[in-house]
């Protein structure tokens, strides 16, 4: 995937979440810009302290209740949408427990090492569980399964992970099986100031 140092040095990542939202994440500053494709909403949220700016129908929102609602929504959207893109870099986060479940075949018939991923008191949905298939040859993730609850026997979602591309110093997968993809994905060294404006 590029290694820990390359991930830490990566600053800006932009992607399109299944043509529903466009995101621009400043990893170093802890900022995210989210623009909905089919709704006139823009949210700029500071992921560290929850502050930010919100625009609805081109009008900046200043009422504390509206700001709190949309900034909270923005942070939760970032948590979800970024996980779909960068989950392999999150496997060793604090609070994540990995368990090796042995060899298993993906839906496409490839043999992989199967990991179970659970969470201890982290994230907004700590009861979630994932199964992650790691290809035995490439050592890249080729499939995941999402379980809404740790106790669930059957996953709510199974998706392939494909179309790996080197972007900046890191490797990212954009294909998610029948659901489509996260393209275009870009790793940027700088972004124009206008990207962080409500205009």
Any key phrases for this structure?
7-stranded antiparallel β-sheet, 15% helix, mainly beta, outer membrane lipoprotein receptor (LolB), chain A, 42% strand, globular, 2 helices, 14 strands, 5-stranded antiparallel β-sheet, 199 residues, single chain
Please state the overall shape, judged from the principal axes of the Cα atoms.
Answer: globular
Secondary-structure-derived class: mainly beta
The major beta sheet can be summarized as:
7 strands, antiparallel
Spans of at least 5 consecutive residues whose pLDDT stays below 50 are none
CATH level 3 topology = outer membrane lipoprotein receptor (LolB), chain A
- Fraction of residues in helix: 10-25%
| Number of helical regions | 2
Going across the major beta sheet, what is the strand order? 6-5-4-3-2-1-14
Q: Rg to the nearest angstrom?
A: 18 Å
The tally of structural domains comes to 1
Q: What CATH architecture do you see?
A: Clam
* Elements, N to C (H/E): HEEEEEEHEEEEEEEE
Tally of DSSP β-strands: 14
Distance between the termini: 36 Å
Strand content: 35-45%
Task: Report mean pLDDT, rounded to a whole number.
Answer: 94
